[in-house]
Structure formats: structure tokens, C-alpha cells
Amino acid sequence: MLVQRAIEQAGIPTIIIAALPPVVKQTGTPRATAPLVPMGANAGKPHDREMQYNICKDTLEQLVKIDAPGKIVPLPYEYVAKV
Amino acid sequence: MSYTVVKGMQSEIFAPVTPPPVWAPVKKPLNQMIIAIATAAGVHCKSDERFNLSGDFTWRKVPDSTKPEDLMVSHGGYDNSDVNKDINCMFPYERLHELARDGVIGGVAKTHATFMGGGGNQEKFKNETGPAIAEFLKSEGVDGVLMTAG
What we know:
The complex is a heterodimer.
Chain A: H1 2-9, E1 14-17, H2 21-26, E2 31-36, H3 49-65, E3 71-78
Parallel strand pairs in A: 1-2, 2-3
Chain B: E1 34-39, E2 43-45, E3 59-63, E4 71-73, H1 81-85, H2 93-101, E5 107-108, E6 111-115, H3 122-139, E7 144-148
Parallel strand pairs in B: 1-5, 1-6, 1-7
Antiparallel strand pairs in B: 2-4, 3-6
């Protein structure tokens, strides 16, 4: 999050795909999306090209859409890792 | 009547404070933006030095042309099994190539930035690593950054 904030401060807009939305909110993310994923598969299920594509696409669309710092947009994709 | 009985008392419970907002406005439509990945997931080229799992504030450059089989993860802070199966789980650069091909984004940056988040020297991340990555991405002409972490 410190790095996201530093990039944003330098003038480049950023967005993070977060597995732990309360954490990124607390640490001051400018923009985030939150699919239902475990930490370690933030961009989606392994080898699920479609889910990963849609998570990235929706997230990048939110990079443009989010209009206020600190907003976290939930995404309708779910992957439960088998541990 | 004053509610303060003893001055300077503090809660024993750690109460984190959210830092002030940061904001860089988007300047062009998404389909004209060059997008880079910055990830805290500890991804790097196999030819690069591994991250120190007990805390590391250094960062790596990953050329966009790198093949998935030439990438690996060294990060001690999360279950690596998914990302070891498919690097795109945390470093979705192949999905960015498809988004560029489909005209959703303008293009993909030539180089991405990676580091090992979730610990390490927070002052260094804030004052050195973060600004260094930001300057690098700026010099590469990046318009927007997709991050994975947290």
C-alpha cells in the first residue's frame, strides 16, 4: 500500500485488486476492487483465463470510473482455494 | 465538570489511523492508456536475485516479454501454491496482453515492477522503494498501474 500511495503521489493513477479489502482501506488505498478471492490468487483462479480477464478488465474500468479516493468496488467473481 | 481524570492516558489497544487520501486523476480514456503491473507478490525473473523472505525492501524489474516459465515467486507471507501453478494469479500480464489486443487498454508497459510486500522496512518502502518504482514507471511513460496485494 505504501508503494501504491507513492506511485499515486508521483502522478500516476493506480488501482489494486485486493483479497483483503479492510486492510487496503485502513492503509489508505486510493482505488481498489475486491473479487471474492484468497490472498495469492487476487487476479482469479489459476488457469481460469476468463475469470482473470474479467477481474482485470473490471478493475481497469474502475480505475477510470472511481471518483473519490478510498473507494473499494466489490467484483462478482468467486474462487475458493482448496487447502 | 471535565471528563479527563488523568491527562495523557492512551488506549492499550492499537488504534491505526488511516493516512490522508492520495489522488492522481486519470487523464485519458482507458483505451489509450499504457498499463503497467506493480505487485507486492514477490514475483521476479528466475535469473534475478530472490527476495529475502524475512523482509526485503528491494524491488525488481520484470520485462513484459518474459515467458511465464521464466518467472517465479519468493514471498514468505502468503500461500504460494496458486501463483506457482499460474503466475497470472498475482501477475496477470498475459491478461493485459489480451486486453490490449481487444482494444480495452491502449497498451502494456515494456517493464513491470515487483517487490515483496506485507512486511519489511516500512520507512524504506515509503521513502525509497515506493518513490523509486514511481519514478521508473513515469520514465517508462506509464499512464496507469494495476496492482495486486492486500
